[in-house]
Amino acid sequence: MASATRVFGQGHRVLMSAATSSVATATATATAVTTAPKRGRPAGILRVVPVSPALGEFLGVSEVSRTDAVKKVWEYIKHNNLQNPSNKKEILCDAKLKTIVNGKDQVGFLEIAKFLSQHFNKSS
């Protein structure tokens, strides 16, 4: 029994106290991260900025964030079934969508962001 105390005695308690303190530290860190104060205005692609008249007419607003513009364009594409059924990477443009994609009949789904970037003011 004396050898068991020597093996599991003090070392075991030291390891347990280290584990307990690391769990407390991790919990405190997680709480600090989740309760971080909110920042002021949105920046980058979340900022609401004025758009070109063509995109404004398409979306029905004169100012929008880039993320909302992309969402609304994709909602329009899906609602009107404009994806090519045989190649889902292609969008077949109708008259309304052609106004924001420079009159092209079909565009790739990755090109939509490129065409939308032309409609946002660069100075904002």
UniProtKB/TrEMBL annotation:
One Pfam family from the record: SWIB
Domain of life: Eukaryota
Residue spans crossing the bilayer: none
DM2 domain ranges (all copies): 44-122
InterPro entries: SWIB_domain, SWIB_MDM2_dom_sf, SWIB_MDM2_domain
Name the UniProt record assigns to this protein: DM2 domain-containing protein
Protein species of origin: Deinandra increscens subsp. villosa
Source taxonomy: Eukaryota, Viridiplantae, Streptophyta, Embryophyta, Tracheophyta
